[in-house]
Amino acid sequence: MRRKTLPVYALVCLLAAACSSNLSKNTHQETAIGLDTTVIQPVVITDSVRHDTDDPAIWINPANPAQSLIIGTDKDRDGALYVFDLNGKIQADKVVRNLKRPNNVDIAYGLPLGGKPVDIAVVTEREANKIRLFSLPDLKPVDGGGIEVFSGETQQAPMGIALYTRPSDHAIFAVVGRKDGPKESYLWQYRLEDNGAGQVKATVVRKFGAYSGRKEIESIAVDNELGYVYYSDEQIGVRKYYASPDSSGTELALFARTGFQEDHEGISIYKTGPQTGYLLVSDQGANQFHFFPREGTAGKPHDHPRLKVVRVAAQSSDGSDVTSVPLGPRFPKGLFVAMSEGKVFHLYRWEDLLGKDK
């Protein structure tokens, strides 16, 4: 059953377009390539988790964006999915505990469950070989105890996850990566649907994606509007494919191959318009993020040259997320969240990262 009011995903897109109209006037050619030695400081550092932060996701509150939440994993065999407000304070009544090494988390809006649209957070539970799904903002389980992934494979151990909402019908899909696997069809894509009892079921719809075999694939990001999926083949670069399960499995690009000190990690997408913006990729060993053009270059949508490199206070950052939606007076042009050593997440104002290019 479709809601009669404006869907959350549509509200988010409208807010993003409105808040970024000034940014979209800048061309990527105006951005100097290179490293600014300035270390950008966060405006908020979250409360500490118990074990080891790994990956964050931003849930945007459609009624009051300033009341949005940060969902973040605490990676351990006795791990948890933490919830923070925009002041970095743990929302204890929402924290999900007793997860077996939760790795990455992502969010989607408006999955039909029990006859109504439900926002969901989906996290990989590595040592259980499952994905776990929780409703938002209350963080209640909607997965019947978890859904096994990579069934029948000798290599399971799910790590990375990204959710794709298909614009044509708003169907939601999970793209899941793992600790190790074959050099072809490394990623599996699942359609998420109501099982008829108000819980989520997942059906494999595609297996795709090359893997170098060098290290592992953890960070995955999806651009819903442009229809692409990106993932970090650590120590190799960022790979790009179509996101739709009905699309070709041909690799569209392999970029970000040089200039990284160690692992390619968190990928996040900042949107300055319907088709423009930035791809941010964590250079984990150097405590910095590389910026690439979301739209590619003129006539070459799969050409993603490096635009700039930004150093941040976050140490050894693994996962990250970003939004261009204004989240109250503290984050008027959006929010960037990065995992940091010290069992915390760092919250940055977008304009601080963009610097002179804002």
From TrEMBL:
The keyword Signal applies. It holds the Pfam family Phytase. Keywords: Signal. PROSITE patterns: BP_PHYTASE (PS51662), PROKAR_LIPOPROTEIN (PS51257). Residues 1-24 form the signal peptide. Residues 30-358 form the BPP domain. This is Phytase. It comes from Larkinella insperata. The lineage of its organism: Bacteria, Pseudomonadati, Bacteroidota, Cytophagia, Cytophagales.
